[in-house]
Fold each of these.
Amino acid sequence: LILGMMPLLHTSKHRSMMLRPLSQVLFWTLATDLLMLTWIGSQPVEHP
């Protein structure tokens, strides 16, 4: 019952991420950084 009423009770004025270009750029930068660091961390350690 409560979950069914949530869309009707939600009155937040927040816009979605599609309408915030800077947030979208920062999100994709974070996602790319996460993937790059995961890949770098999985590489074997080599002595210089």
Note: The helical segments are 2-9, 21-42.
Amino acid sequence: MILTAINIGIAYIKNKWYLSPYSLNLESLGEGNFIFVGSSTDEWAANVPAEWIEQVLDYCDGFDNWYLFQSKNPARFLEYLDHPVMRKSVLCTTIETNRFYPDIMRNAPVPQELIERF
């Protein structure tokens, strides 16, 4: 199984979130793939509308694949644990340091909070 990175549905461009109908209209994600959904954005960020997340999860559930979802806001995963796609998903977060540098980590949670949420 090969891990494929794809931005399905949500993009963050010039400080604004967008739901991309183009990527939700792809004919097929195939089957038997392991897809890193939203590899260059955080689909689970606090300011992403719930309806958008649901649309992406529903779309992914329509294909026989495994999915990797990563977030700096892993507490939000809890809202969607009952979604059918979660039976074939891996949830993860990254913790780069135990220090917090507010000048460069503006919107990221304090590392200790991130650990507690996950």
Note: The first helix runs from residue 21 to 24.
Amino acid sequence: MQSSTKQDRARVVLDTNIVVSALIAKEGASARLFEKLILGEIENYTNKEIIAELKEVFGRKEITERTTKTARKFVIREYLNNSIQIAAKARVNVVEHLQDNKFIETCLDAGIPCLITGDQHLLKLKEFLE
């Protein structure tokens, strides 16, 4: 059962590294964030590009060797079931790693200033989203 009303929830975009970290380290900050997503305490926005990247990363050898297929399926399913998928519209080129622009674009498309990431180059963009 979801514990927060829609207006109480923080609106965010979770970077792929946060979801992968939640899968691997079940006791860390990323796992607690993912639990908040499942419990409805945060409202995550995503798009087809982010979902495709997440599935691709979950299929990498270094991930499949460290996790079970059941755990990977669970995390993907819960991510999809508890996230709001929006159409990708905005296009920006503001980060060194071009493939990471999709996270900024999703924040812009959703009208939210909160990207949760562990990537240092994305963390430097704080002012861009504010």
Note: The chain has a mean pLDDT of 86.
Amino acid sequence: MASDGGFGVSGGGAGDGAEGGGVSQMQAQDVMQACYVKAPLSGVAGMGLGAVFGLITGSINNEVTAVAGESKKEFFKRTLKHAGQHSWRMAKGFGLIGAIYTGTECYVEKYYGAHRLANAPIAGCISGFVIAIRAGPAAATASCAGFAAFSTAIDYFIGH
């Protein structure tokens, strides 16, 4: 048995692919680094974050006001319904942005073959443009610039 307790982490253990029976750690890492895996995973994570954020902001929103003669239970149900709708809208938005940005950045990184600071504004601009194109060319261009600046700042302070 391997010194890692038989979990295949240090090599020679069960499930590390050395005997041909299982997926090796390197193969699993390669799959997780694939753009077609990273983008949907980022979208799902973005949806989760957006849902939580939307639930919090939707529940403290002032759009839902008490109606005269309405019980607390009915008001709570209406508030919860509004928060749920707001949460779903935010989840879709965050998920879409996460998937588009991560996929774009991944393919830009693969194209250049390195993680560079210049990848962030390229991916940010493309993502911002794609997300805002339905609002017109001026909005898409402004969104491109905003996403490029924001993603560059984040990558500069956190990524490098």
Note: The chain is about 70% helix and 0% strand.
